[in-house]
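Job type: complex structure
Entries:
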Amino acid sequence: MSLLEIHEPGETPLPHAGEGTLAVGIDLGTTNSVVAISREGKPAALHDELGKALVPSVVAYPAAGGVLVGEEARLLTAREPKNVVASIKRLMGRGAADLHTVAGVLPYEIEPGTGQTDMVKLRIGGKARSPVEISAEILKALRLRAEAALEKPVERAVITVPAYFDDAARTATRDAARVAGLEVLRLVNEPTAAALAYGLDKGSEGLYAVYDLGGGTFDFSLLRLEKGVFQVLATGGDTALGGDDFDRAIAESMLAERTKDGLADVVDEGAVKAALALARVMKQQLSDRDHTSGRLELAGVPSFHTLTRPDFEGMISGGVKRTLDIARNVLSDADMKIEEVNGVVLVGGSTRVPLVRAEVAAMIGKPPLIDIDPDEVVALGAALQAEALTGGSETLLLDVTPLSLGLETMGGLVEKVVPRNTPIPVQLAQEFTTYQDGQSAMAIHVVQGEREMVEDCRSLARFELAGIPPMVAGAARIRVTFAVDADGLLTVSAEERTTGVAQRIEVKPSYGLSHDDMADMLYDSLDNAEEDVARRLIAEARVEARRGLLALDAALEKDGVLLSAEERGEIDTARTRLLTAIEGQDRDAITAAAEGLETLSKPFAERRMDRGIREALSGMSVNDLESRVGE
Amino acid sequence: MDHFARLGLPAALDLDAGTLDKAYFAGQRQWHPDRFVAKPPEERAKASTEAAALNDAYRTLKNPLDRAVYLAALKGVDLPGDGKTIDDPDLLMEAMEAREELEEAGTVRAVDALAAKVRGDFDKALKGLGSLFLANDKPAIRKALLRLRYLDKFGEEARARRTNIERGTG
């Protein structure tokens, strides 16, 4: 570990040791990627020989050998669909259950056996490849482009990620950079980077919103800009909502039209890719026109399709509405009103869709800011931050954690330790205790999400704190600490504090432990807020009842002889009734059964207390007692 | 070091948002990890710890209720940890009645009216804290804080109920 760290340029004690190499800003996008550099506060995107800044985020492993990235890779899609992969960002840190199909078919071939309890792998060009290594190819290409343009080695970068990326996806992005030979100076959230580019360029102050709809992800952030301080107040989003979904809707409609016309297509990976490629072209054309048409050829059979803008808008209106709902929730989280927003910055290629622009403008009540190219603005902000981190700057970027982090507690409930929108870095601890007498270990399950129940959140890591000394239930004090660093990455540690035995475990959550679609989680939590409260109340009643049962069982085992057979029978019946109630969903029934059992066992408790007093006195002789009585 | 001291602020209930921001930004200008990227590991670790403590302090003191609870704890007034326990019979009655009203509220307007009333109660109770702290009346402070916590939580529940009605699932 320490050997590795010595090689990190950021840790070099000499302040100017890094001067020979340059630090760039990289927007690693779902559809396109951009690399930029900033000098003296002036950021610029780096272009290829043809003057293009955008590198399509497409990687190909041609049959002829080698690796292609960008436009060249994309051009290979028609000829060798199985050797080309696009939109890999959607798979970063994700499992098989997170993937989206077109007409039931995935535009990827999944490596069998992956994506169940780990990150999914793809089979491309006859080989299993992880999203990390595929993303690394894109980063390598960007690095080469930067080195060619700057004529200097490039070894360090600020890389942007969607604000709503979870821990697994952030870790995967960092790993990809390592594979590409880049040291990550900082992972910066995309909307924050965009705000940085706008704020520094225009000198804007006040409350600004960033609406970032890319190819695969949506983010909405609310920032306060003030004298060089960029303070994120709240953020929200969906890591599985973007232009890709618009393409998918068009592609599915075209495939359905073919079926309706009696064409018997074999819809495979290649067919899906061809339909998606055409769909994207048609979508882009509808940004400037009212209708468009296209020709789709599958297995040599052509078909012709027309699409009007209203039809297209009908297909995507659900997705657009969802972005607006998320935006409203972010405002509510920050306790801000729409009227207080000074402006909204549009980021991401999908904000070129006229419906998106119109809806955002209508919600905010102001024309959106589009002065900086929405495809480049994130990379420009990243470049500014790279310069600030290596060269020093008066700019201060204060970001937040997008999703709540917590632990599983009794009854499958989530205890939140770090609430969403907490400024980072942050270190927060919470104490937990044991549930049973003599409990020697505690299972610690780290989850991320907004819902009340563990099963509805994303599981990040599980570990066990063992070696807790024997104590009565509730006496142990287990302190669990969550630390989120400035990159938004989490470390969890736990220790037992009563005994001074420093049982300390550190856990870095690894990716892909669970495949819950986390983008849906926050959204669901709104839909289900009432249901969640009800479930929490039931779970709490169950925990309370079980605790009573444990105590009763322990007492029965020790002092059961104090009860007559009849009394014991009554208690056993009440006990069974409570156990049945616990299995059910009726909170009142649980509470009533628990109270019934408590009433029945009250005389028993009193007798136990009497016996306890007698036992305390039993060490004394009759004479002792008499002499006391006589006193 | 307590949160007030960390930000160089007097330990008082009244705190102007602008003053807090200024103190917080100044602290982060000094300690944010972005300023330590090229520093040795031990300096970076220290910066990270300091920045995290500043964030914790800022987050706690920014919210008026959290600030009051924190200040009360400094004075030795402890509240039940889970924030849900209600051990005050008057409050229990108030809470039960309000919850019933919320359940009966079937329209967004009815929920909004109820939320506004509770919000008003919250603001009033918050204002009333000042004199209790001045008199250092610990039992009264405790009672008032428990009620404030409940009113705050009720606001959340009202928001959830409103969302559900809007979505037609309520």
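Summary: Chain A touches chain B through 35 residues (CB under 8 Å). The longest strand of chain A covers residues 229-238.
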